[in-house]
Amino acid sequence: MHPPREGLDPAPASTQERDSAASSAQAQRDPGVRHLKLPFTDVPGAEYYVTAGFQVATAEELERSSETGDLSALSDRERAAITYHGADRLGDVIFNWFD
After folding, report:
1. Which parts of this chain are annotated as the region Disordered (predicted)?
2. Residue 58 to residues 54, 89, 90, 94, 97: CA-CA distances in angstroms?
3. Torsion sign (Cα): 56, 25, 93, 91
4. What letter does residue 43 receive in the DSSP assignment?
5. pTM for the complete prediction?
6. With left for phi above 0 and alpha for psi between -120 and 50, is residue 86 left, alpha or beta?
7. What is the distance of C-alpha 38 from the center of its chain?
8. CA–CA separation, 45 and 15 (whole Å)
9. What angle do CA 17, 21, 23 make, to 5 degrees?
10. For residues 89 and 68, is the Cβ–Cβ distance under 8 A?
């Protein structure tokens, strides 16, 4: 494990993160679970990425419904894959498991 970088204070895992990890472990033991819908979280230190010229999506943006998002740049085949795999949040479309 690397030591923390200067200026960054690593916080202990939140209860939500620990619960998510426990849910993930349970799903790995349960073959009936296809995938988990874990909540997205804001990127710690996002301002550093923004300063470097990147656009950082917030947890709220990633949690938005893919049905209300603009998917017009995607092909019919890509939109069909989103529907087929049940990627109902924009974050699921961006960080998907079906590529």
Report:
1. 1-37
2. 13, 13, 11, 13, 20
3. negative
4. P
5. 0.58
6. left
7. 8
8. 20
9. 115
10. no
Convert the chain into a string of H (helix), E (strand) and C (coil): CCCCCCCCCCCCCCHHHHHHHHHHHHHHHCCCCCCCCCCCCCCCCHHHHHHCCCCCCCHHHHHCECCCCCCCCCCHHHHHHHHHHCCCEHHHHHCCCCC
Residues 61 and 23: their CA atoms lie apart, in Å, by 23
Q: At CA 88, angle to CA 82 and CA 89, rounded to 5?
A: 110
Residue labelled with tokens 């710690």: 44
Distance between CA atoms of 36 and 40, rounded to whole angstroms? 12
**pLDDT tens for each residue of the chain, 99 residues long:** 455 555 544 454 555 555 555 555 554 555 555 667 789 999 999 999 999 999 999 999 999 988 877 888 989 999 898 888 888 899 988 887 766
